[in-house]
Design brief:
The chain has 273 residues and is an alpha+beta fold. It contains five helices and 15 strands. It has one domain: CNF1/YfiH-like putative cysteine hydrolases (4-Layer Sandwich), CATH 3.60.140.10. Bound molecules: zinc ion.
Length: 273
C-alpha cells in the first residue's frame, strides 16, 4: 500500500492506495483512514458511517472530503447494507445510488459502469477490491469470518466471470487493513466452521497462542480463496496492516469494544479503456 497525505484544503486527510493498481489510470481505489475528518469522541475523526452514533452533518462532511480527493459525485456512489452474507449486487447505470440508498443484505458490489463508485465500510472486516483490466470491471466485497466461510470471494470471481466474461487469471485483488492474526482471537465453534469450509487447510489458518487462546489468520484465508478461485499470487496485494494494532489510523470494532467509527474502501472506474 501507498500512504497519501492530502494537500490543501484537507491537510490532515490520510488515505492509502494499492501498488498493484498503480499502472491503471482508468480506475482508482482508495482506503480511507480515521484521519482528516470532523467527527468527535470515539468516532474521531473521518468516520463515514451514519450508524455508529455520529452526527449526520459530520458524516456528510467526512464523506464529501473523501469523495473530493477521488473526484466522485456523492449521488453516484453505490453502497451496501452489510450483513456478513455472500449476496453480490451487479451495479448498473440504472441502479439506485447516492448517500441514502443502500442495497439490502448485500456484501459485494460489482460493475463495469464508469463513474459509478462502489463503497464498502469496515472496521476490522476486510474490504477486498477487484479489478479486471481486460474487461474493465471493478468490484468490492466485505468479508469477515462469516463471509470467508460462505466463500464470498469465490462467488465474486464467478459473478465477474459469468456476468462480464472476466478471466480469473486477468484479475487483480487487494485486501484492505483489517483484524490481523496478531489480534483476531476466536472461539472453538468458529474453528469448527473453518474445518468444514477448508477441509484440507484449516489448520494453517489458526495460530495457537502461548495462553492457549486461538487466533484466526483471516488474511491467509482470503489469500487462499483468491488463489483457489484462479487469481495469480502475484496479482494479489495484501495491506498487512492490522486495524487493532493501528488505532492511530484505522477504526477497530474489536479493539475499541464496539465504540468506534468506520473507514472505507472506495473504487471507481474512470474510463472504459
Ligand atoms: Zn493486531
Amino acid at each position: 500500500m501507498i500512504r497519501h497525505e492530502h494537500a490543501q484544503p484537507y491537510e490532515n486527510l490520510v488515505y492509502y492506495s494499492y501498488q498493484l493498481f498503480e499502472p491503471f489510470p482508468q480506475m482508482s481505489c482508495v482506503i480511507s483512514t480515521r484521519l482528516g475528518g470532523v467527527s468527535e469522541g470515539y468516532s474521531h475523526s473521518l468516520n463515514l458511517s451514519f450508524s455508529v452514533g455520529d452526527t449526520e452533518q459530520a458524516v456528510l462532511t467526512n464523506r464529501s472530503r473523501l469523495y473530493h480527493i477521488v473526484d466522485v459525485e456523492p449521488q453516484s456512489v453505490a453502497q451496501a447494507h452489510l450483513v456478513h452474507g455472500n449476496y453480490i449486487e451487479i451495479v448498473t447505470s440504472q441502479s439506485p445510488t447516492g448517500t441514502y440508498r443502500r442495497f439490502a443484505e448485500t456484501d459485494g458490489l460489482v460493475t463495469n459502469v464508469i463513474h459509478k463508485p462502489l463503497l464498502i465500510l469496515v472496521a476490522d472486516c476486510a474490504a477486498v477490491a477487484f479489478f479486471d483490466p481486460k474487461q474493465h470491471v471493478i468490484a468490492l466485497l466485505h468479508a469477515g469470518w462469516k463471509g470467508i466461510v460462505s466463500n464470498i470471494v469465490a462467488k465474486m470471481v464467478s459473478t465477474m466471470h459469468e456476468t462480464f466474461g472476466c478471466r480469473p487469471s486477468d484479475m487483480l485483488a487487494a485486501i484492505s487493513p483489517s483484524l490481523g492474526p496478531c489480534c483476531y482471537e476466536v472461539r472453538e465453534d468458529l474453528v469448527a466452521a473453518f474445518h468444514e469450509a477448508f477441509p484440507a487447510h484449516a489448520q494453517d489458518l489458526f495460530r495457537l497462542q502461548p495462553d492457549t487462546s486461538i487466533h484466526l489468520d483471516m488474511w491467509a484465508a482470503l489469500r487462499y480463496q483468491l488463489r483457489e478461485s484462479g487469481i495469480r499470487p502475484e496479482y494479489i496485494e495484501e495491506s498487512g496492516l492490522c486495524t487493532a494494532c493501528h488505532l492511530d489510523e484505522f477504526y477497530s470494532h474489536r479493539a475499541e469494544r464496539g465504540k468506534t467509527g468506520r473507514f472505507a474502501g472506495l473504487i471507481v472506474l474512470r474510463s472504459a479503456t
